[in-house]
Amino acid sequence: MLSYQHEYHVGNHADVLKHSVLALVVRALQKKDTPIRILDAHAGSGIYDLRSREARKHGEYEHGIGRVLGQPLPPVEIHDYLGIVRALNSHADPGGELRLCPGSPEVARQLLRPTDHLELIELHPAALAQLHRYFGRNAHIHIHNRNTFEGLPALLPPTERRGVVLMDPSYEVKEEFVGVVDLLKSCHRRWANGVFLIWYPLLRHPLAERFPAKVRAAGLPKVLQVELQVEIDAYQGMRGSGLCIVNPPFGLEGKLNVLLPWLWDALKNDERTGWKVGALA
Questions:
Q1: Is 135 helix (H, G, I), strand (E, B) or coil?
Q2: 149 touches 183 (CB < 8 A)
Q3: pTM for this structure?
Q4: Which residues, in sequence order, are CB contacts of 4 under 8 Å at separation 6+?
Q5: How confident is the model at residue 58 (pLDDT cuts 50, 70, 90)?
Q6: pLDDT in tens, 180-217
Q7: Of all helices (H) and strands (E), which one includes residue 274?
C-alpha cells in the first residue's frame, strides 16, 4: 500500500516493542560465530526525523521512545535498543536532544557483524530513496525495490542457515491480515530454520482480532506470542500491538518476561491494560 507513511507514527509504542524485540532476537542469534542474515520485509525509510511536520503532527514518539528513554534503570534486555537510539542521536545532536528515530533497518544495521548481511525490501518511492541515501554504500546491506509478497520468498533461503525475517505491514489494506499469514507459510517452507517476527496491531476489527488464531492454524511449530496493550479505549485506534515469533531463539522467552512488564509500566496509559508472553495457543 503506497499511501501509508510511517513518519506519522514513528517512535510510538509499537515501534518500541518490535524494535526492542528485534534487537533481542538478533543478539541471541549472534551468540554463535556463524553468520546470520536479517531480512526486513517492509523496510520503510530506515531513519526518521522527529522534527518533521509528519512526526510532530501527533507526536506519538513522545509517548513511546520519549517515555522509554526517560525511565531510570532500564533492564539489560533493552540496553541494545536504547544504545542504538542514543548512538544515532549523538551523531545528529551532541547535546543529547532526541532528533532522530531508527526504523528497523537502522536497528539491524547497528547490530550487524562483519560477516552478517541485511536485506531491505521496499516499494514506496520516497522510502526507497531514503534507504539508498542511508544504506546504499554498505556492501553488507542489499536494497530491493520489490513487492514483499513476491520479493521475500524469492530471497529465501539465504546462503546462511540462520537468521531472522521481520514482517510488519501497515495493515491499511485489511486483506493483509490474511496475506501475511499465507506469506509466512510460504517463507517457512523455504527456510524452516529461520526466525520469523510477525508484527500485528491490536484493533477492534474482526480480521485483526482473529490474526493470532490464523497464525496458530498455520500449523507452524514453536510459535511464541508477545502482546503489549497500552490503551483501553478501542475507539481511539490501535490500543497496542503484538508479535508472533516463529522459531524463537533459546532463552528469548525469559528475556521477554523481563522486558514486557517494564515496557508496559513505561508506556501504559491505563492500568486496565496489560502484556503477555507465552506459547501461541
A1: helix
A2: yes
A3: 0.95
A4: 124, 170, 172
A5: confident
A6: 999 999 999 999 999 999 999 999 999 999 999 999 99
A7: strand 274-279
